[in-house]
Amino acid sequence: MKPYSGIWPVAPTAFHDDGTLDIEGSARVLDCMIDQGSDGVCILANYSEQFLLSDQERLDLTRMSLDHVAGRVPVIVTISHFATDIAVARARQAKEMGADIVMMMAPYHGATLKGTADQTFEQFAQVGKVGIPIMLQDAPLSGVELTVPLLARMAREIEMLKLLKIESVGTAAKLRALLAEVGEHIDGPFDGEEGITLMADLDAGATGTMTSATITDQVKPVVSHHLAGDRDKAVAAYARVLPAINHENRQCGFRAAKETMKAGGVIKSAYSRHPVPALPDWAREQLFDLLRPLDPVALKWGL
Known about the structure:
Blueprint: E1 6-7, H1 23-35, E2 41-43, H2 55-69, E3 75-78, H3 84-97, E4 101-105, E5 108-109, E6 113-114, H4 117-128, E7 134-138, H5 148-157, E8 161-166, H6 171-182, E9 188-191, H7 198-204, E10 208-209, H8 216-227, H9 231-252, H10 255-263, H11 281-291
Helix pairs in contact: 1-2, 3-4, 5-6, 6-7, 7-8, 8-9, 9-11
């Protein structure tokens, strides 16, 4: 068993209907996530709409989240930035405020400005000097190709790079290759993408998953059964939730968790800032059609 395992969902960021930050609602989100059985939580990730937040809002959310969670579960703070100095400063700030782990993507900006392999290595190495565990997020959004040889080198040579969240195309194959080559250097092999390839990834050696916060309590048994060695129960649990996961991943994105938590009385608004459009009525209705039979905590937590 690896030191980091289980389900560590991403916290959605709550806004009021006028688009202002809802700090109280975001605190309720964290409570709901913990009550769903989260083994850890991640804030300021892409599914937290980090790209729609000001620097001050990031600071306010980080401070509130760490104070509010107060050690009940570990907290990962996302610190990604194209500028290495800013990523390092964010890591240092997160550590000083009590974060357990920081998460970061390879440096990129837009579709064409991407860090090279050497630049990516150096940025992670510089953050590693801060002295807080790092989760590397290998996601298509960056457009940066992180090859197995590069990731293996980083895992071997950057002491604080403890966790890898692999959600690129061919996640299971990549996890298998990495664990075969440098498994002793990876304390937390995770997948993401709402768990849409979770069974294959667990079979490949993943010990954790970073999903959205929509149905954490329903996805957790998949991981728990698999880690306990009962693959048949894991497969059955996965088959039960996969239609909802697929709809979230392909039709809703991060809006699914907010719509679910609004319906469940966790937050008052499912608002996302422009230019993100509201979830279409048909997608919301189909989401709830798939969620209601599962009876997830988030759909009833605040009612």
